[in-house]
Every structure is written in C-alpha cells, then in structure tokens.
Specification:
- This is Ferredoxin-like protein.
- To ferredoxins from P.putida and C.tartarivorum, ferredoxin I from A.vinelandii, ferredoxin II from D.desulfuricans.
- InterPro entries: 4Fe4S_Fe-S-bd, 4Fe4S_Fe_S_CS, ETF-QO/FixX_C, Fd_FixX.
- GO terms for molecular function: iron ion binding; iron-sulfur cluster binding.
- Strand 3 and strand 4 form a beta hairpin.
- The chain contains four helices and six strands; from the N terminus they run H-E-E-H-H-E-E-H-E-E.
- The chain is globular.
- The strands form three sheets. A two-stranded antiparallel sheet has the order 1-6. A two-stranded antiparallel ribbon has the order 2-5. Strands 3-4 form a two-stranded antiparallel sheet.
- It is α+β, with helices and mostly antiparallel strands.
- The protein starts with 9 loop residues before the first helix and ends with a strand.
- The chain has a single domain, classed as Alpha-Beta Plaits (2-Layer Sandwich).
- One iron/sulfur cluster binds next to helix 4.
Length: about 100
C-alpha cells in the first residue's frame, strides 16, 4: 500500500454531504435586470462551488437546495445583488463526517 491518498472528485466530495432543504430559499437575487445588463460574466455561476446559480435566458435560477453555505456569494457578487442568510435552524447542509 502506497499511503498516498487519491484526490477526491467534486462528485465524491458531494457524496459526503446531504441536504435538508427548507421550502423557502435563503438566497435571493435582488434584481435580475442587473444580472442581465450589468454583469456580462455572470460570475456567480463560476465562483459558487455548488453550482447553485444557473443563467436561464433572462434571469438567474437559484437552486438554493444545494447551497454549501460557504458565504462566497455574499462578497463575490460585484453588484451586491445577492441577499444571503443562513437557512432556518435544522435546514441546509448536513455533513456526514466529523
Ligand atoms: S454575480 Fe451578481 S450581478 Fe452578476 S449575475 Fe450573479 S447575482 Fe447577478
Ligand atoms: S453560499 Fe456558497 S454554495 Fe451557497 S450559493 Fe453562495 S457561493 Fe454557492
């Protein structure tokens, strides 16, 4: 046995978490027109590790159920266009290890 640990793929890492999604989103894009007209790179679709944000023609779809609660979108949106709060108690991501 080599003792070298193989790097995990994102899919393997995702297997280590599960979600207890709330029925209401804890994430809100405040103004979809800002995304459309002022944010050509739609960088939330890049920096979010959970691929929560998906651009759909003229508005941003927010798949809040898969949010990892890393907080990046609180500071990553260049237009402060994302309202982010923690999910209500008992909801959100649950880690299987630790
Ligand atoms: S980074 Fe902000 S402004 Fe840009 S697309 Fe995402 S939510 Fe909209
Ligand atoms: S908190 Fe992190 S995982 Fe959740 S939507 Fe924002 S960037 Fe994505």
């Amino acid at each position: 046995m080599s003792g070298v640990t193989k790097a995990q793929t994102i899919e393997e890492k995702q297997y280590l978490v599960r979600f207890n999604a709330d029925t209401e989103s804890h994430l809100h894009v405040l103004d979809h027109d800002t995304c459309l007209s002022k944010c050509p790179d739609k960088i939330c679709t890049i920096f979010c590790p959970a691929e929560v944000y998906k651009w759909e023609d003229i508005r941003m779809h927010v798949g809040y159920e898969g949010c990892h609660e890393c907080g990046s979108c609180r500071i990553g949106c260049p237009h402060e266009n994302i309202k982010w709060v923690y999910p209500k108690g008992g909801h959100g991501i649950v880690f299987r290890l630790g």
